[in-house]
Amino acid sequence: MTALQLTGLTKTHPGGNLATIRGLDLTVASGTITALLGPSGAGKTTVMKLVAGLFAPDAGDIALGGRSILTLPPERRGVVMVFQNPLLFPHLTVAQNVGFGLRMRGLPAARIATQVDAMLGRVRLGGLGQRRPDELSGGQAQRAALARALVLEPDLLLLDEPLSSLDPALRDEMRSLILTLQRDMAVTTVVVTHDQTEAVVLADQIALLLDGQLAQHAPPDTIYRRPASLAVARFFGGVNFLPGTAAAGVLQSAIGPLTLPDSLPATLANGPGTLTIRPEAVVLGPGPTDANPRTARVEGCAFLGSQSRVDLMVGTTPLQALVAPEVARTLTPGQTTLIALPPEALWIIPLGTEAG
Ligand SMILES: Nc1ncnc2c1ncn2[C@@H]1O[C@H](COP(=O)(O)OP(=O)(O)OP(=O)(O)O)[C@@H](O)[C@H]1O
User: Fold this and answer.
1) pLDDT given at position 284
2) Which of 210, 225, 240 is the last residue of a domain?
C-alpha cells in the first residue's frame, strides 16, 4: 500500500502574511492518479515541493504507505518529480540520463543497462539511448524524463503539468503513455495542473485547490456536475446560477418552480440554495415533458468551434447554453424559443458554501 496522505498540511512562505497552504487534508489512494488542480498561485507547486521534501511544512504530516515521510530527506522519500521542462542533463546521453538515479543508488552497470533499455522501450525511445538530449524532439525529451523517473520504481510519482507544453497530437500520445505506464506499474500519482482538461483526461480524482485550501476532491464527472460551492462551479466554467428555496422535490426560483432530481441528497433538496445547471445540459427545443420547459428569448450566439454559446433570457434571468453550431445557426437574436432544464442535470449548491 502506497497511499499518500496529507494531514493538516500548512505552509507560510517567508515574507508571506497569509499561509499559502492552510490545513490541507488529502488522501490519494494507492495506485490511482489524482490531479491537484487550481489557478495560478493557488499553491499547487508548494504542495508538490512539500511532498517531495523541497520545502518543510509549518504544521501537518505527510505519510506514504501509512508511514510519515516528513523527517526523511528528499532522496529517501520514495517520491520522484517530473517537471514540465524535462531538465535532462545535456552532456549525458539519453540512456545515461535515464540511468542516472540507478547509478546514484550504486547498482551494477549491467543491471542499470538492462533496466534502462527496458524502460526506454516502454516509453517508445528504444534505439535512441545513445542520442544527446538536444537531438530529441520536445515530446521525446519529455518521455525520457518520464522514463528517468519511472525506472526508479517510486512509491509516488509527481507530474508537473505533463501535457501543457505539447501540441495537441503529442498531448494525446503522452496522455495514453502516462495512463498505460501508471496502470502497468500501479504507481500512486499526483498530476499538478492548472488545466481542467488535463486534469479530466488524466485523473481518477480531482483535488481542486483554491487559495491554499481544498475546495473539492471527487471524480471528474462529479466535480463537473455536482460542485460543492459556487467557486468550484465557476472554476469549471459554470455560469448558470439560480437562487431559490427547495421543498418536496421542487425549487421555487425566479423562473418558477423547477422539478429537482430524485437523486438529490435530502440535505440539498430542502431549504435555500443556488441551483446550477451546466450550459451543455440546457436543452434547446421542447425536450421531454417533465424536463422543466420554459420559454426563453435568444439574446445572442457565439461560435466557439466545436460548440456555440447561446445567451438566453428567461424573464429577467440570464441562462447560457452550449449547443452544436448547426443548432445555433437556426437561431436569431430577439426570437423566442422553448428550452428545457432536465431535472437529472440540476444540482443545488447549499447556502453557506457560496464564497468566491
Ligand atoms: N519559495 C517561495 N518563497 C516565497 N513565496 C513563494 C515561494 N514559492 C511560492 N511562493 C508563493 O506562494 C504562492 C503559491 O505559489 P505556488 O507556486 O505554490 O502556486 P501554483 O498554484 O503552483 O501556481 P502556478 O500554477 O502559477 O505555478 C504564490 O503567491 C507564490 O508567490
Assistant:
1) 93
2) 225
* Structural domain count of the chain: 2
What ipTM, to 2 d.p.? 0.95
Q: Could you tell me whether strands 336-340 and 347-350 are parallel, antiparallel, or unpaired per DSSP bridges?
A: unpaired
**pTM (predicted TM-score):** 0.88
Residue 52 scores a pLDDT above 80: yes
279-290: b (≥16 Cβ within 10 Å) or e: bebbbbeebeee
Question: Does residue 317 share a domain with residue 251?
Answer: yes
Q: Do residues 179 and 318 both lie within one domain?
A: no
Q: Are residues 168 and 315 in the same domain?
A: no
What is the residue type of 70? L
Ligand 1 center–CA 41 separation, angstroms: 5
For the chain, the average pLDDT equals 92
Domain that holds residue 315: 230-350
Task: List ligand 1's pocket residues with C-beta within 6 A.
Answer: 13-14, 16, 20, 38, 40-46, 194
Q: Please write the tens of the pLDDT for every residue from 12-22.
A: 988 877 788 99
Pocket test for ligand 1, best of 9, 11, 13 (most atoms within 8 A of CB): 13
For residue 130, give the C-alpha cell: 545513445
Name the closest-CA residue to atom 26, ligand 1. 40
As given in the structure block, the three cell numbers for residue 193 are 495542473
Res 354: pLDDT: 54
